Amino acid sequence: MISLDTWRDGWVIFKKELRGDRMYLIGNVIFMLYLAFSLSVMMGSHSEAEVLMKPLSDFLMLLLVPLTGFFFSRRSFNYIKEDSYTRMLKYYRTLPIPITAIMKGRIIQLFMALIFNGVLFYPLFFWFSSNLRAEMNIGQFIVFILTWTGYALLINGVFIYFELLKKGRTYLWLTISIIVLVVVITVISHFLGTSLVMLLVDYSSHFSFLSPLMWGALVVGGLGFFLLIKITKRKLIVRDLRS
Fold this sequence. Notes:
Number of strands: 0
Strand content: under 5%
Oligomer: single chain
Number of helices: 11
Shape: elongated
Order of helices and strands: HHHHHHHHHHH
Radius of gyration: 19 Å
């Protein structure tokens, strides 16, 4: 049975966090606008520049799309210096707030960020990129968005796991590891003569809502996220915040 009380508590936590970092939302908006414009320029490159721009667009999409699951905040910028996520958990443990409410607050934050940032990023990306508009209609572009959303869910599940269970420096090493992995995937894709972004464009435009990549990404991303959240919740209950 779903506990409405813990979901309400989760909303309270989410709104408290958002009110405390309202000024950071301005940077959030600017970053999404910049990202949409930069990627659209890369997608529209031609001739010799295309050899560099296609792998670079793959790299940036793989690296930055998961960030649509974040609201920029003081805590996210200070997690190394202050171990801010652990400090947050220590604070909440002094209050009569169940672990389930903390987890649900973080899940609410993720999905609200995906919606807020997605509404900013994807339409502008589509609008700025004449190449995308030539290849896909609105419905096919929605398929493109859903494919990347499945990927973003999986990676954000990993981020939440490390955010709530590990120290700031370990979280930093996770970030570095993901960057290295993205570089490796991009290089392999480039030497195989393909572009991940263009592959998703082709599948989205050809198969539309029957795209196997879209359904595969949503199933794998959704199940992976669900399992990671379950594991994180179980371990968070017994986490020793002193270590």
